[in-house]
Amino acid sequence: MSARDNILKRLRERTDGPLTAPQSDFAVVTGRGWSQQERVARFERWITSVHGEVIHTSRDDWTATLAKLLEAKGIRRLALGREHPVAVEARAALAEGEVVLIDADRNIETWRHEQFHDTDAGLTSTHGAIAETGSLWLWPTPDEPRLLSLVPPIHIAVLDADTIEDTFFDVVEAHGWAGGMPTNALLISGPSKTADIEQTLAYGVHGPRELVVLLRHAEDRP
Amino acid sequence: MSASEVQTFTPREFHRQAHDALGNPQIRANFRKAMDGLMAKRRDVFSDWDLETLRELGANIRLRALAKLPDLLERLETNCQANGIQVHWAENGDEACRIIREICQRHGAKAVIKGKSMVSEEMHLNAHLEEAGIEALESDLGEYLVQLNEQTPSHIIMPAIHLNTDEISDIMHAKTGTERTRDVDYMTAAARAQLRERFMAADVGISGVNFAVAETGTLCLVENEGNGRMTTAVPPVHIAVTGIEKVVEHLRDVPPLYALLTRSATGQHVTTYFNMISSPRKLGEHDGPNEVHLVLVDSGRSNIYQDDELLDTLRCIRCGACMNHCPVYTRVGGHTYGTTYPGPIGSILMPHMMGLEATKDLPTASSLCGACGEVCPVKIPIPDLLVRLRREAVGEGRGNVPGAGVKRTKKEVAAWKGFQWLATHPGAWRSSTAIVGKLQALMPSKLGPWTEYRTAPKPAKVSLHALVKQHKAKRHQVEKADGEERS
């Protein structure tokens, strides 16, 4: 018999007999009932508590905010997709500027060295976010691959305020994640960090040193 | 211990190792400081939660997964395979090592990069791969430092917790040529640069799994550094290795367990990354491994599964809260246990993996204060299980644990049988306690290990039974006299 059959047989022919599975009540991880303002405030409080940076902007004006951010951080080479509206708008706005736009929708084998060594930042869209933990929800695509939010030293994520939901459980349930998972689903809460050297927090150990969230509101904020 | 003196530890030498660790002020200070901080952080991060209800849910989710374990493993396998993930089963660590080595060899791998995986530590995978000429490099910063220092992790979440900044600076200086410094950012940046080159060059990435979701065939990894994401996305092949108990039924079971795990482990409200992998690179995708393998390892787990009481051991989600709160672990440190998993969870798990002959001292490395059971996010009754394993060691258990009865001695069995006879025969009991009282002066003041830290018990001159009898007789006389006066 194979290892598989042996293991399953031992588990099925349990000495103390079959077990009864209890029912689960998930009330404790849902039903927060926060308002839109509360959600934004909680998201911002939590993600900034772990070194994430949040810049409020508007749907109409966000690319100007992006341009200013790139200048302020001295970002000369920005990797981004080509199809997602976020990438399309960013490309249109930055076309005339001095920032080099790097196509992220290429097989990694063809530009690994460039991505690891010669890319200052990666720009990605997000599917949404979680207020309770200050987490971004990303489903990487061929247009915005997995490593775009990981390898460049700065990750700039574009988030719409009205896509922030209360809890992780709410997101999984409301969007029917169990019905079809992508190759890779990610929650990102802040830049890469470690406390492995005597509990001292240090950022940017393997992934980005900085995470900047461009938080887009539907209308201009006062 | 400095970088140059490398020691090996074994559970057989627990007492000697504990003695050495207790005499090492550096080790004691490093652990005390870290554990105090972790306990405070955990308390704070749960302060606005209904923690009891959340723990109840966590325990319930794990129990449900275990109740359906064989079915869920099959479902996990079916769904992983449908997603393109190749599934392998291993009865023990050696078999798992062989499966992993063969996958590496099939790809002509010379170098593998590893994310944190306690199961791979359990099976000594690195040594196995190196014997086959394949270099295995740890990429979690703590694991990397421990590997540079030729040690093993001293904590399941914070592998290098036994080292302080100066020691780490010395290790990095000696092994990688960095400057001697107390600047943690400098050391972190240096390790980042060293490891990034290795990620790019690695032929295979090997990771553990925090939760394997049967419903969707999804592997979940919890981490802060990003090395887990690198390991599972940069090399062309990803091998995930996990114990068979890590499976959960539904995707919705994951958020409560994740909430419990990060808060219990390090007092974080969330980790930087929650990485959910459901397939290898699909047609048209531009990065990620072309092959993903899942290796399911038994290694004694299906044996633990047989017994209703011991089964609770398998609920564990490997947060390490039990060690952070253990007064014994905090004082002796992780290496003293000499096992892959130290602390209370190790003391209830390792006897099943290594047998009680080698680990007989571990279940006694506890004052049974109950802290581990109180903080466990999935409510494992760790103190009860420690007591159960003590029983197994003296051969009074039900015989599921390898090496049961290792501490049983004829002398002790005879002594307890004699005591049982005496305690159930009142006449003999009374006459023998009377004799013991009379011979009080002959009682030795040294009684082996018992009197090393305590004074020897001294039998009373007159037994309690005799005292009560005297007291009753006296009262009877007084009452009789009172009655005569009144009449």
From TrEMBL, chain A:
InterPro entries: FTHF_cligase-like_sf, LUD_dom, NagB/RpiA_transferase-like. Pfam families: LUD_dom. Gene3D superfamilies: NagB/RpiA/CoA transferase-like (3.40.50.10420). Residues 41-215 form the LUD domain. It comes from the Bacteria. This is Lactate utilization protein C. It comes from Billgrantia ethanolica.
From TrEMBL, chain B:
Pfam families: Fer4_8 (PF13183), LUD_dom (PF02589), LutB_C (PF11870). Keywords: 4Fe-4S, Electron transport, Iron, Iron-sulfur, Metal-binding, Repeat, Transport. This is Iron-sulfur cluster-binding protein. The keyword Cell membrane does not apply. PROSITE patterns: 4FE4S_FER_1, 4FE4S_FER_2. The keyword ATP-binding does not apply. Residues 307-336 form the 4Fe-4S ferredoxin-type domain.
